[in-house]
Design a protein that fits this description.
heterodimer; A: five-stranded antiparallel β-sheet; 20 strands; elongated; B: 580 residues; two-stranded parallel sheet; two-stranded antiparallel ribbon; 25 helices; 4 strands; 71% helix
Chain lengths: 359, 580
């Protein structure tokens, strides 16, 4: 099922939880809403489930508005953050509940419950009480319960936030596997950028009630459209500068630390093309894009002093100080030496790794 | 589902509640206000002037006040140390003892008065014993009830209501985060200073919640003064005037005065509680707050608690002895023991019908309370509808409403006289037969029991719903179940324990209800147990007190069983139900 959110606004008192939010979730897509806590992502999810009614705008299922459809008539399957398994029913009864409501015949019901529990690998524990299950097992049952009704869309509200690190990794893979097997349309809400980058077909990034950017993980990471997105997803160094000249192939920016040359194509989705000379821009450079160099070349060289180095074997993290005292973070893969504090370093960056931001 | 919008279901519930409270709470109260201030159409304070210039009426008011204050003070003194022991220390037999501490609640104090009179009366067992021991000659026997029965009423009151205070204070003490105490200890405070500066201020709201219930009980108790013969109190005065309803405006003055006094005091206690209610900022784990009692303290706890239990069960014991006594007059113990009165209870038409009536009325009222309680609690916790605060306040109002006031209001407000000479219309006749308490008190008795105990079931249901995550219901809606199905399959099963316990409690209290029963049940065929006992005592038949006591013992057994079940289900949460 395809879901459209069109200009949806939801207020709680004076707080605008969702502010003119619009996006589409395509049929069969695993769509992520990503943002810091309190950004409104859960509100959007609950608007789709029907637990809230929008103050303005429309929620459409397969192009039909569902604003007035009560939650129990929407056929969405929701996995709650606290799983919300009913303690007075067994695992199998929990999973069968939605089928009972739908008056599914007994044989078919039993088969579907069995299948759903098999998909989440919980078949053996069907007769247990949810209170006897571990967090990860409860999570799987909640998933099976939502999946078994063949929902139009599966809604996952921070489903991994109550699991420990190892289980989180396993369950991440599990959900990805289920998605690729079933091609079930899913909306997944999280504040964990790693979950979003590793699993999503597309990501919508939210901040303070607004949807800031929508794109594939690669687009969001490589070409963030704002300082917020750049900073929230991964790490980013920001260097202020002025545009010196713009050519067909490149943009040259003058900064306090020397000239930085960026690929003109990196402008495509981030700022408008017509960057004029003397315009103020921010150059965003990811720590892993900065590599120590022995010299050579004249552009895209940054000199800095090592303040602290953290050696992790396959990589080494550096916290450096620029000549004017500003901090800079860099990362070296397969480091050849352990750097000492006070050591002077020259770092280089490829033109295609510089992200130009005008806001 | 917008939580701020009225759904058809919540609108229907609201309408139902509005009609119910309007008819059975505000209408009778309003009727009495009108009769007190506008007796003949025009506003007048004449009857109040008369009241305050009558030395007799003022004496009654003073006596009632004295009862309330002395009972509350004594209850406090008795309860605080016991509550302190039970919330701070663990010791063998604690569960059993805390259960036994609640035992006095199984009998209304006026029944105890029957037995107690036998022991402490002028020619009762105690004075006869003292005479026999050669200490005090029976001719100058000690007046144990003091000042015309005042102390008798006080002692019986204290012994029967201290459990409510105990439950309140222990619950409050158990809620105090132990780390708050540990922080003070860490800074050097110990013993009395620690109790005075940390524990006591934090427990205050819980104490006031219990104290106001105790005060209102003692201030308006009807049964005990009536049986002890301490008649110069407002409750007995009101009771005496029930028969004059409609002719004597003075009765309304009295009732309104009692209502205003209890209401002002209730608001005062709410205000004190509210001003001093500290939200625990960082709630640590309250488990592990109990420590084993040191041996010497342990003996003190056993001595104090068992002593209190034994003394408080004295009325019960005397009732049991009396129920077996075939001849008990001018002797320390009965001359002969017999079980014949238990047989009589089941043969005697009055006792038999009173047991049947009590069970019927109490079951109906418990069921009505269950329905009302679930609806109100659901609206309060699951729908943030406008007027929720008002609804909460109304549901808690009966705590400040003495039984005599409500019962009197029912008698006055639902008085539907029928003139035998001119036959009324069919529906008027039906209304008279069905609602007027002088014709058939069933409806009003059931409703008065329900209204008075509604706060307890609302508390129980609200607690259950608050402990149940809303997402459990949302998950059901999400999977396609209708709100009704969700309520039936998910919500109700999850709060069932609380509901059962709350229902048992309301049932028990309906069985124990004295003032409503004494006032509203006017025909013998509709007497509940309490009124049946009262009626039997008044008979000249020498065996009547014994039959009354046998009836009382049966009531006790019934209640002990139901309270035991309720406390098993609720466990430590029982105390939360008795807060104002």
């Amino acid at each position: 099922m395809k879901v459209s959110i069109q200009g949806v606004t939801k207020r709680f008192g004076s707080v605008v939880a969702a502010d003119d939010v619009s996006f589409d979730i395509r049929d069969g897509e695993l769509f992520f809403l990503l943002g810091p806590s309190g950004c409104g992502k859960t509100t959007v999810l609950r608007l789709i489930a029907g637990f809230y009614a929008p103050d303005a705008g429309d929620v459409l299922f397969d192009s039909k508005p569902v604003n007035d459809v009560p939650p129990n008539k929407r056929n969405t399957g929701m996995v709650f953050q606290n799983y919300a398994l009913w303690p007075h029913m067994t695992v199998a009864e929990n999973v069968a509940y939605g089928l009972d409501v739908r008056h599914v015949a007994r044989d078919e019901k039993e088969r579907r419950v069995r299948d759903a529990l098999a998909i989440v690998r919980m078949g053996e524990l069907a007769d247990r009480s949810p209170t006897q299950l571990s967090g990860g097992q409860q999570q799987r049952v909640a998933l099976a319960r939502a999946l078994v009704i063949n929902p139009g869309i599966l809604l996952l509200d921070e489903p991994l936030s109550n699991l420990d690190a190892k289980l989180r990794l396993e369950t991440r893979e599990e959900i990805t596997r289920i998605h690729s097997e079933t091609r079930q349309t899913m909306l997944y809400v999280t504040h964990d950028q790693k979950e979003a980058l590793s699993m999503a077909d597309r990501i919508g990034v939210m901040n303070a009630g607004r949807l800031v950017q929508v794109g594939t993980p690669h687009e969001i990471y490589r070409t963030p459209n704002s300082r917020f997105v750049a900073d929230f997803i991964g790490e980013m160094n920001f260097i202020e500068g002025k545009v010196e000249r713009v050519t067909e192939a490149e943009v040259v920016v003058a900064t306090a630390y020397g000239l930085l040359v960026a690929q003109a194509s990196s402008l495509r989705s981030t700022t408008d093309r017509k960057l004029e000379a003397c315009a103020t821009v921010t150059c965003g450079i990811r720590p892993e894009a900065l590599t120590p160099t022995r010299g050579g070349g004249t552009v895209n060289l940054i000199h800095a002093t090592v303040q602290r180095a953290t050696y992790l074997g396959e990589i080494e993290h550096y916290t450096l100080t620029l000549p004017d005292g500003q901090p800079l973070r860099a990362l070296e893969t397969n480091p050849e030496a352990v750097r000492q504090p006070g050591e002077k370093l020259t770092l280089t960056v490829r033109p295609e790794d510089i992200i130009l931001l005008t806001r | 589902m917008n939580p701020l919008r009225f759904t058809p279901a919540s609108a229907a519930f609201f309408a139902f509640l509005a009609i119910f409270f309007g008819l059975f709470l505000f209408y009778p109260l309003g009727y009495m206000f009108k009769a007190a201030f506008w007796p003949a159409g025009g506003f007048t304070l004449e009857s109040f002037r008369l009241f305050f210039t009558s030395p007799f009426q003022l004496e009654c008011l003073r006596n009632s006040f004295a009862l309330g204050i002395v009972v509350t003070a004594l209850t406090t003194v008795i309860t605080l140390p016991v509550a302190h022991w039970f919330s701070r220390y663990s010791f063998p037999g604690k569960t059993l003892l805390s259960g036994l501490l609640l035992l006095p609640m199984i009998m209304p104090p006026f029944v105890g008065a029957i037995g107690i009179k036998q022991v402490f009366a002028r020619f009762g067992s105690l004075n006869l014993l003292l005479d026999k021991l050669g200490l005090v000659p029976v001719e100058n026997g000690i007046d144990w009830f003091g000042s015309g029965g005042f102390w008798g009423v006080v002692i019986l009151g204290v012994l029967s209501v201290y459990p409510i205070m105990f439950l309140n204070v222990t619950a409050a003490m158990a809620n105090v985060d132990p780390t708050l105490r540990e922080a003070a200890e860490n800074l050097g405070a110990r013993g009395w200073r620690l109790f005075r500066t940390i524990t006591l201020p934090l427990v205050m709201p819980g104490y006031f919640a219990g104290a106001i219930i105790v005060f209102i009980f003692a201030f308006t108790d009807l049964g005990t003064p009536l049986l002890i013969g301490y008649n110069r109190v407002v409750s007995v005065q009101i009771f005496d005037k029930v028969v004059e309803v409609g002719t004597n405006p003075f009765a309304y003055t009295l009732v309104i005065l009692v209502l205003l006094i209890t209401f002002v005091l209730f608001l005062l206690s709410k205000w004190i509680t509210g001003a001093k209610s500290y939200q625990m900022m960082a709630r640590g784990n309250t488990a592990g707050a109990e420590m084993p009692a040191p041996p010497r303290l342990r003996w003190m706890i056993y001595g104090g608690t068992i002593g209190l239990i034994l003394v408080s069960l004295l009325p019960h014991a005397s009732v049991v002895v009396q129920s077996f006594a075939s001849h008990w007059f001018m002797s320390i113990l009965p001359d002969q023991m017999t079980t014949q009165f238990y047989g009589e209870v089941f043969r005697h038409p009055l006792t038999l019908s009173s047991i049947r009536n009590s069970l019927f009325f109490s079951s109906l009222s418990a069921f009505l309370d269950l329905v009302l309680g679930v609806i109100i609690a659901w609206l309060l916790t699951r729908r943030r509808v406008p007027g929720a605060n008002l609804l909460d306040a109304i549901a808690m109002l009966p705590l400040a409403l003495p039984g005599i006031v409500l019962a009197f209001g029912y008698v006055a407000g639902f008085n539907i006289p029928v003139n035998p000479k001119s036959p009324p219309s069919a529906w008027y006749q039906w209304l008279h037969d069905f609602v007027d308490p002088s014709a058939n008190p069933t409806v009003l008795l059931v409703i008065s029991y329900s209204v008075r105990r509604l706060p307890y079931i609302v508390r129980a249901a609200v607690a259950g719903l608050q402990q149940t995550s809303v997402t459990l219901e949302e998950a059901s809606l999400n999977l396609g179940a209708s709100p009704l199905r969700t309520m039936r399959k998910i919500t109700l099963p999850l709060v069932m324990a609380n509901l059962i316990a709350g229902t048992i409690l309301t049932f028990s209290f309906a069985m124990l209800e004295v003032s409503d029963s004494l006032i509203l049940a006017m025909k013998e065929a509709y007497f509940p147990i309490t009124k049946g006992i009262y009626q039997l005592i008044g008979r000249v038949d020498p065996n009547a007190p014994s039959v009354a006591c046998a009836l009382g013992v049966l009531g006790m057994v019934l209640l002990a069983a139901s309270l035991l079940i309720a406390s098993r289900i609720l466990g430590k949460r029982m105390g939360q139900l008795f807060r104002a």
